[in-house]
Amino acid sequence: MPLNIDLHTHTFFSGDGVSSPEENIAAARAKGLHGLAVTDHNTCDAVTYLLEKGLMREDGLPVDGFLLIPGVEVSTEEGHLLCIGTILPYLKGKPALEVCAIIHENGGLAIPPHAYDLFRAGIREETLETLPIDALEVFNAATTLRRYNRYAFRYAQLRGLPMTAASDAHHSEALGTAYTILNTDDFSVQGVLKQVCQSNELSQHYLSPRDSMRKTWNNWMRLRRRHTLPTTEARLQPLDTE
């Protein structure tokens, strides 16, 4: 059966995400998705939260007819790299080749998102050539310039890579703007991972101008928060030396 799965989404556990995991699930269900991958920036905290809340199962089966797939978007030394299907330790700043190896050791898939996008830490072609990736995100609904999706598509064609499409949603309203249609009767994390590595149909729609502006604003606020000094009270707290 065809499963509509958004393989690249963010919650408020990402520094630039605004929606709760529950809000994302509700929005995805309302839009006819069968599941989504939780791929926050450099953290699997949302996955831990969802497991604790009983909204995600450790055995990889759906909950109430909806499948949540563990993952993370790692900011590697050369650019962003999606891990789909498993939980990883903190790997920010590690070489992409090393991160690929760790993803595979843990049973996940390595999928570069928004490749070629110079404004969003897309991995460049010279690095892609060196990576044992499992698929390539060839349609990112939030890409800075649409030609970057075309470049990724052509590269995947030349290399014979499986292709994915995803919303890269940072708020619930953008979920399901783009997604991958997986034809499999195995409605589980393992079934999805196996089918992602095959040829699949892609649903490709771009974010609306309003959603794009909202994402840009979230990114700007994240950068602004990063440079904000802690409050006086926080600065007076004793240092944790453990």
CATH architect. name: Alpha-Beta Barrel
| E-strand count | 9
CATH topology: TIM Barrel
* Count of individual domains: 1
User: pLDDT below 50 for ≥5 consecutive residues: which ranges?
Assistant: 222-242
Cα Rg: 17 Å
Which percent range describes the beta-strand content? 15-25%
Shape annotation? globular
Helix and strand pattern: EHEHEEHEHEHEEHEHH
CATH homologous superfamily? Metal-dependent hydrolases
User: Strand sequence of the main sheet, in spatial order?
Assistant: 5-4-3-2-1-8-9
Quote the average pLDDT. Answer: 90
CATH class: Alpha Beta
Question: What do you see in this structure?
Answer:
The protein is of the alpha/beta class and 242 residues long. The protein has one domain: TIM Barrel (Alpha-Beta Barrel), CATH 3.20.20. It has eight helices and nine strands. The protein has helices spanning 21-30, 45-53, 96-105, 125-128, 146-159, 189-196, 209-226, 232-235; strands spanning 2-9, 35-38, 67-76, 79-84, 109-111, 136-140, 163-166, 179-183, 201-203. Strands 5-4-3-2-1-8-9 form a seven-stranded mixed sheet, with helices on both faces. The protein is globular, with a radius of gyration of 17 Å. Residues 222-242 have low confidence and may be disordered.
Please describe the structure with a list of short key phrases separated by commas or semicolons.
9 strands; TIM Barrel; two-stranded parallel ribbon; disordered C terminus; 8 helices; single chain; 20% strand; 242 residues; globular; alpha/beta
